[in-house]
Amino acid sequence: MIDIGRELQVAINTGKVIIGLRETKKSLLTGAPKLVIIAANAPRWAREDIEYYAKLAGVPIFTFPGSSIELGAAAKRPHKIMALAVVDPGQSEILKLVEHA
Fold this sequence. Notes:
alpha+beta; CATH 3.30.1330.30; 5 helices; 47% helix; globular
């Protein structure tokens, strides 16, 4: 079983992760991310936007099992995070989340 919080932290430290709904949507338009993570309590309009852009870009989506507050805590940030995009996983194995989902 993959520890999502640990792998997310490794990806942030060793790779490139874009944080925030607006920035994630921008990155999806360029097709840069390899994975998008969205909080389970994200509003329907936000989830639909992300799913639409991710489908166009061919990027998999992983729904974080916790709230946006918990996703922020997992990323070691002092604020809520509704969505984030993993552009470069670095040394983490975060892309394996898609295989297990």
